Amino acid sequence: MSTLHTVNKSPFEKTSLTTCLGHLSAGAAVLLLEDGVYAALTQTSVEGQVKGALDSVKVYALGPDLQARGLSEERVIPGISVVDYAGFVDLAAEHDKVQAWL
Amino acid sequence: MPIEVEGKTFETDEEGYLANINDWEPGVATVMSKEDDLELTDEHWDIINYLREYYEEYQIAPAVRVLTKAVGKKFGKDKGNSKYLYGLFPYGPAKQACRYAGLPKPTGCV
Amino acid sequence: MSETIKNFLYLNRRAPYGTIYAWESLEVVLIGAAFDQDVSLAFLDDGVFQLTKGQDTAAVGMKNFSPTYAALGDYEVKKVYIEKESLEERGLSLDDLQHLTWEDEDDDYAEKDSIHLVTRAEMAAIMDGADVVFSF
């Protein structure tokens, strides 16, 4: 069963990201969106956690939410793929289900 | 109540402010002022154009106090007072000038 | 005016767009600034994200209110405190944030910096010194 996990809360304010990363199974993917995209930045206090996850799962960040927040793609951790809304739809279709971490 | 400008229809809210700021064209101000029996002069247009520039830059309509100060700086100290602005726009710069300029009602203006 | 001028501090701790707090705070500040009070703004925790440069909300279909912060100087808001530790935890520096200024009428309209980078300890003292604290 492959699951797309979505995280839309800031990792500095909520534990959603940490809990999500602690509950991933093989074949899972994580999509960061809305305030969740802050977790995609380099040099933050959660960078190590996100890089650790990249060893075993794919991590994506939603481009329009990065742009809205003034975060350029150069600031995103290498290995995270930036996708647009169409890419979001593709990811949802490619996985068996979507689990949202609110 | 929608307003008609040269055959085109513009949607407004219940207080007569333009529903979509991007729809605005100078004819909107002319038609609105006619309904108020006001003839727009260059001095009126200075304020209307300034309000549009302010919104373009800051994405808000300025408070009356902010507008007054800015007008004084841009158009001369003698114009930077509420007497001058109310002389031009008897219903008030916020309620009248912002409306003619197609802006929403200024934040904090009740 | 015979009323005592109070010192109001607005605490901004939320990121923009994900929730309505940031915009609500800005609106309240703009309304409050019309009443001749001494207003300061503090940005800490995720609040520092409100001031990042280059915000473009076209693709998410929301109002981009980041240009509005630059109007704060017109509203006599001259003190904007940014917490250093909050920036660092988020991989940011002052260079990533908008440059906010106010014009000093008594000094030939000279542009002066509104933003002050402060440590957590200094922020605590700023909070302690405020008459009223509004939290967003």
UniProtKB/TrEMBL annotation, chain A:
<dbReference type="Pfam" id="PF04077">
    <property type="entry name" value="DsrH"/>
</dbReference>
<dbReference type="InterPro" id="IPR007215">
    <property type="entry name" value="Sulphur_relay_TusB/DsrH"/>
</dbReference>
<dbReference type="GO" id="GO:1990228">
    <property type="term" value="C:sulfurtransferase complex"/>
</dbReference>
<protein>
    <submittedName>
        <fullName>Sulfurtransferase complex subunit TusB</fullName>
    </submittedName>
</protein>
<dbReference type="GO" id="GO:0002143">
    <property type="term" value="P:tRNA wobble position uridine thiolation"/>
</dbReference>
<dbReference type="InterPro" id="IPR027396">
    <property type="entry name" value="DsrEFH-like"/>
</dbReference>
From TrEMBL, chain B:
<protein>
    <recommendedName>
        <fullName>Sulfurtransferase</fullName>
        <ecNumber>2.8.1.-</ecNumber>
    </recommendedName>
</protein>
<feature type="active site" description="Cysteine persulfide intermediate">
    <location>
        <position position="109"/>
    </location>
</feature>
<keyword id="KW-0963">Cytoplasm</keyword>
<keyword id="KW-0808">Transferase</keyword>
<comment type="similarity">
    <text>Belongs to the dsrC/tusE family.</text>
</comment>
<dbReference type="InterPro" id="IPR043163">
    <property type="entry name" value="DsrC-like_N"/>
</dbReference>
<dbReference type="Pfam" id="PF04358">
    <property type="entry name" value="DsrC"/>
</dbReference>
<dbReference type="InterPro" id="IPR042072">
    <property type="entry name" value="DsrC-like_C"/>
</dbReference>
<dbReference type="GO" id="GO:0005737">
    <property type="term" value="C:cytoplasm"/>
</dbReference>
<comment type="function">
    <text>Part of a sulfur-relay system.</text>
</comment>
<dbReference type="GO" id="GO:0002143">
    <property type="term" value="P:tRNA wobble position uridine thiolation"/>
</dbReference>
<dbReference type="InterPro" id="IPR007453">
    <property type="entry name" value="DsrC/TusE"/>
</dbReference>
<dbReference type="GO" id="GO:0016740">
    <property type="term" value="F:transferase activity"/>
</dbReference>
<dbReference type="InterPro" id="IPR025526">
    <property type="entry name" value="DsrC-like_dom_sf"/>
</dbReference>
<dbReference type="GO" id="GO:0097163">
    <property type="term" value="F:sulfur carrier activity"/>
</dbReference>
From TrEMBL, chain C:
<dbReference type="InterPro" id="IPR027396">
    <property type="entry name" value="DsrEFH-like"/>
</dbReference>
<dbReference type="InterPro" id="IPR003787">
    <property type="entry name" value="Sulphur_relay_DsrE/F-like"/>
</dbReference>
<dbReference type="Pfam" id="PF02635">
    <property type="entry name" value="DsrE"/>
</dbReference>
<protein>
    <submittedName>
        <fullName>Sulfurtransferase complex subunit TusC</fullName>
    </submittedName>
</protein>
<comment type="similarity">
    <text>Belongs to the DsrF/TusC family.</text>
</comment>
<dbReference type="InterPro" id="IPR017462">
    <property type="entry name" value="Sulphur_relay_TusC/DsrF"/>
</dbReference>
